[in-house]
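dude i think i finally got it to work??
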Amino acid sequence: MTRAYWKQFASFAVLSALLCGCSAVDRINGIGAGPPAFAPIAKPEAKAVTVPGTPSQPQLSNSLWQPNAHSFFHDPRASRVGDVITVDVTIADSGQISNATTTGRTNSEAANLTNFFGLESQIPHLLQGADPTNLVNMGSTGAQTGTGSVNRAEQINLTLAALVTQVMPNGNLVINGHQQVRVNSELRDLQISGVVRTEDITSDNTVNLAQIAEARIAYGGQGQITNMQEPRLGEQLFDILMPF
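look at this
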């Protein structure tokens, strides 16, 4: 094969990738590059946001008791930017929905013109074979029956360590956790973020998912197995445009 042939083949591959989208370009660039790379470790802000108007309490270096501590010696709970907190993600959700719809309709329309200023006698001459007593007689019948049901169940049990990224003015903590596990060529990615009250953090520095406000959980993957499970772009486009 000549060099011109390979140039044409490369141009065709690039054009196809551009038409398919950025994901296809990334996958083509990843050929021979090994397994998916880890994301960089996020660094929380170096300075926390303090509560305005709250007087600072002096730290007594010679005392065993620390202000706002839940134990006599040391409070292990997360309270500052950069502290680590353990999040228990337990989801056991299920739902069942069913519905049925039946519709029917019958229409009938009739019209005649037996008396119209004496001009009704001219209708047979204008419309050959027309009967003024029965000009329009239409009817239609329609029926539709539809049934549907949804039966779903999700169950997730995970434990994830998250970082405190911000301390809000009212004392609540903004947390963000990111965990990645790579097995061979498959990368599993777990992310969680939300707002936690310090009162909901247990003495062992743990918080449950039900106590996280504005919780956002993402659990996905990247790699060969995930690529095989996703439908092709052409199939997705055909499914959207297909009217039947």
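The beta strands are 84-111, 136-167, 173-183, 186-196, 206-208, 212-223.
im so relieved honestly
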